[in-house]
Amino acid sequence: MTASRTRKQRLAPGRRLLAEPLVQFAMPALALFALYAGTGEPERRRIRIDPEVVSTLVENRALLLDRALDEHERRGLVDAFVEEEILVREAIARGLHLHDPRVRARLAAAMRFLLEGEPSPPSRADLDRLLEEEPERYRLPAWVSFEHVFFETPPTSNATVLAALRQGRPADELGDSFWLGSRIERMSERELASVLGDGFAARVMATAPGSWSGPHASARGQHWLRIVDRGKAEALPGEALEDALRQTWRERSDRQAFDAEFAPLRDRYVVESSP
């Protein structure tokens, strides 16, 4: 085990939090915002370098480089920190945190990250309960592959198009070009619906394989199609299932923690709207 890995394992939870990019971005701005709100007069000309912050900066860079930093590199980190601190203060002085949508989004994301915290790991029973609650959520959906001829506006004769296809006319010689091509591969009903509409997706999934049929109306035009392959819904494989369950657990835990922490913050504000 390298010295850098040992240092990483010893890193305290507070320092690990400081190492998060969103937190590093937001800490100076949030602190200065509180100072503005509390006094109305920011401390613009004095920048205190906290030894713990310097230690965290140095330690994180050493972990990234997998070696110790020399004195020149340490001074460079401090100089970069001071430069960023000055720029953040000046940005706040100019109201960028209020008017720049990118800065506002980053601050809001950082604050959300802080409120959510780090959830406890789920137990096996927790994950099994998620699977029991929504078993269909953790299955690979049924899918279909098909060839189709697309017409943005209806052709002169629907019967002529269908007859030509059933007589062996290549699909790419008929109709208009379609941005996904003349063959759609392994798409689920939900994926089809997002592109061509719910009704079309349902009809395609119900169409028998083998022969050409149509026209089938979609959100983009009319289609003549032939099912060439299909697959049934099936359970996620073991590792993918475990990852999906843990992701759901994390999302729910984050949401619950955020709601609990945000509620008292929301109570501090009265929202008014202009008539």
Topology of this protein?
Blueprint: H1 3-10, H2 13-19, H3 21-39, H4 51-65, H5 71-93, H6 96-99, H7 101-116, H8 124-133, E1 139-140, E2 143-151, H9 158-166, E3 183-188, H10 189-196, H11 198-206, E4 213-217, E5 222-231, E6 234-235, H12 238-266
Antiparallel strand pairs: 1-6, 2-3, 2-5, 4-5
Helix pairs in contact: 1-4, 3-5, 3-7, 8-12, 10-11
How does the overall form come out from the CA principal axes? elongated
Number of discrete domains: 2
- Main beta sheet, described? 4 strands, antiparallel
Strand order of the main beta sheet, please? 3-2-5-4
Mean pLDDT: 82
Helical content class: 55-70%
Overall structural class, as computed from helix and strand content, comes to: alpha+beta
Indicate the radius of gyration in whole angstroms.
29 Å
Q: SSE order in H/E notation?
A: HHHHHHHHEEHEHHEEEH
Relative strand content: 5-15%
Distance between the termini: 65 Å
User: Total strand count, please?
Assistant: 6
Number of helices: 12
Q: What are the segments in which pLDDT stays under 50 over at least 5 consecutive residues? A: 1-18, 35-39
